[in-house]
Amino acid sequence: MDTLEKMAGIDPVRVGLDHTFKFKCHKKVKCFTKCCRGINIILTPYDIIRLKNCLQLTSEEFLALYTEPHILEKTDLPVVTLKVLDDNEKSCLFVREEGCIVYEDRPTTCRYYPLGVASLSHKEDVDGDEFYFFVHEPHCLGFEEEATWTVREWRKNQGVDIHDEINAEWTDLIVRKRSFPPNIKLSEQSKKMFFLASYNIDKFRQFVFESSFLDRYVIDEETIEKIKKDEIDLLKFGLKWLKGIFFKEGPFGMKEGA
Ligand code: SF4
Ligand code: SF4
Asked: How far is the CA of 199 from the centre of ligand 2 (A)?
């Protein structure tokens, strides 16, 4: 399972939500779990929340044990990929003979497969709308099975629409940052804030509630209560706040004198 960079020489065709395709994956396919070897999967903020809760870890522990840091090309933004086993196959740490041990909480990229999504590919030139493409890896025999989907149906079936809804502000931030002129560089502090709010939700909670954060920003009581109780609300809040920092927009103004 991989992004465009492993598919050198293949020109990806952009497909939209109503595009139809034949595909089925199940335990009896000869290639079962082959797509979980040689992986290069960028994790989204919601992926981290699902996986760390599934494994009963803090976000900090999950990041340390299961991820590798990278800079996302053409954005200068720090992202993480799933760590792989140090074997010849570069297998995912979660794959076993019987399949994926975190299947219910698998990342966005795994859900999309055999589709790829432009905003999550390392090198894709995205200058506007999001789009999809097929990751035609030669080992994948799912295209020979009898089941027909539209891209829209596939997304719903794989539960990826919920991931996309929660990650929407993050994806938008990446796509917009990609379209910045290359000479506009981010400060180290902005990159740290991006990483914190995107990936380290437990530390971000501490930052919001245990620093002077709430003394500096105008945030209504209802929002404060919501983000205290619910980490998805906290994540969405953090992503909106990031956009405020990056693009000088958003609902959170500074308090007078802050
Ligand atoms: S998380 Fe699961 S589905 Fe995704 S690559 Fe790893 S084993 Fe495969
Ligand atoms: S059919 Fe494709 S997606 Fe399914 S196990 Fe085989 S390689 Fe992976």
From this structure: 28
